[in-house]
Amino acid sequence: MFLAEVIGTVVSPVQHPALDGERLLLLRVLQPDGSPAAETRIALDRAGAGVGERVLVVDEGNSGRQLVGRKDAPVKTVIVGVVDYVTLDGRLTYDALH
Amino acid sequence: MFLAEVIGTVVSPVQHPALDGERLLLLRVLQPDGSPAAETRIALDRAGAGVGERVLVVDEGNSGRQLVGRKDAPVKTVIVGVVDYVTLDGRLTYDALH
Amino acid sequence: MFLAEVIGTVVSPVQHPALDGERLLLLRVLQPDGSPAAETRIALDRAGAGVGERVLVVDEGNSGRQLVGRKDAPVKTVIVGVVDYVTLDGRLTYDALH
Amino acid sequence: MFLAEVIGTVVSPVQHPALDGERLLLLRVLQPDGSPAAETRIALDRAGAGVGERVLVVDEGNSGRQLVGRKDAPVKTVIVGVVDYVTLDGRLTYDALH
Amino acid sequence: MFLAEVIGTVVSPVQHPALDGERLLLLRVLQPDGSPAAETRIALDRAGAGVGERVLVVDEGNSGRQLVGRKDAPVKTVIVGVVDYVTLDGRLTYDALH
Q1: Closest to E8 (Cβ–Cβ): which among C32, C55, C80?
Q2: Hey, which CATH number is domain D2-76, 3.40.30.10, 2.40.50.220, 3.55.50.30, 3.30.1510.10?
């Protein structure tokens, strides 16, 4: 799992019924201190996330299919939660409420 | 999943019946803003994509086999859609019609 | 498997029952000599690890599900042990007791 | 899948019957224009490839096992074809006959 | 698969019966010419390898479980052979007997 920020959306007709109507979000991978990493990803949303929110992401095929609830879904990267807070070396480095 | 641009084709007899007659396309991985990343890949086409088009790509073995429709296909990277548009930080950064 | 140091925690409601009540720890990947690598990860804890401890981590989906004991858990990265000691080229480079 | 050039061989007794008598080839990963990438790999040969030839490689466990024809084979990287030609941005960048 | 040199050992109680009594070795990944790459890994030993030896390593979960002989083992990286020799561009670049 990794931390990321939702930075945008992708719209594309996907050639598989398991992905009909799914939202595809663009993510920027984050360091634990909140600074951006170089990588970006495209993920399915299972947590009702919006642009600007910090999210927890699972990046493994079988996990993605469990989360989508279909064994035949062609998915790998899924947003599983909107992050409440992060501590690093005992300090609070992110708090969704502030 | 990731965004990519189709940049070419590869022709090679592949030693597995599940891949007979499949088109193999060369992809350049893209950043969300459309700038090229360093990586390239070879993918099967499931979206009727052509050179120069922007595509959505799944890069996981079991997903690839679902898309090809054969459990025994030796595939990992499959083009699942031609991208319509991409938004980044609220701005439209790609639009296939313009 | 790789070596890592626990550097923090992440709190996020995760949308899957198999992860209810699980602790998510922030890890910094380590070189064998104990110096930090650039990468960080988020892992489930199966070894009772705390911030500052050196741990052994498995990073593969099916292994993670075995460790969690549920075939349907969306997990990939799991802490499997707190490290006792490490030798490198015949020298002891880490010893948890000193 | 990716493109590679066969650059050498590895000889090692492997502790699994599914790999008895298999040839292990050293590969250098290639860019689509034929220039070398930094990475190298070791692969099983399923295409009768020789040193100096350009090959198409699959790099995923379940695909590798399909190609070897045994569900229990510990393989991930398999050469699936000797490349005939490659086009990039409409130009022919590789042709095995010339 | 990749080539590596055994550079050390890790001792850690691992929370899974399938790993009881297994030796965990520290590896440095090698280039085909024998020069060290930046990466290190921790692997199970299935070839009786010792510190300083050059080994062949499989790095995929299902392959690792085949080699360990248990479907429920949380392993990914396994040493499958001690290397006898390596040729690169027709030259012998490593020979275990010299």
Answers
A1: C32
A2: 2.40.50.220
DSSP structure string for C67-81: HHT-TT----EEEEE
Predicted confidence (pLDDT) per residue in D32-53, tens digit = 888 888 788 899 998 889 999 9
ipTM of predicted complex: 0.77
B40/D31 touch (CB, cutoff 8 Å), yes or no: yes
Mean pLDDT of chain E: 86
**Beta-carbon neighbour count of residue C10 at 10 Å?**
25
Q: Which CATH number is C2-95's, of 3.40.630.30, 2.40.50.220, 3.40.1280.10, 3.40.190.10? A: 2.40.50.220
Give the Cα-Cα-Cα angle E53, E56, E57 (nearest 5 degrees): 115
**pLDDT score recorded for residue A65:** 80
CB nearest to D80's CB, from B15, B51, B62: B15
The predicted pLDDT at position C4 comes to: 94
Alpha-carbon distance of A34 to A18, in angstroms, equals: 33
E61 contacts C63? CB cut-off 8 A: yes
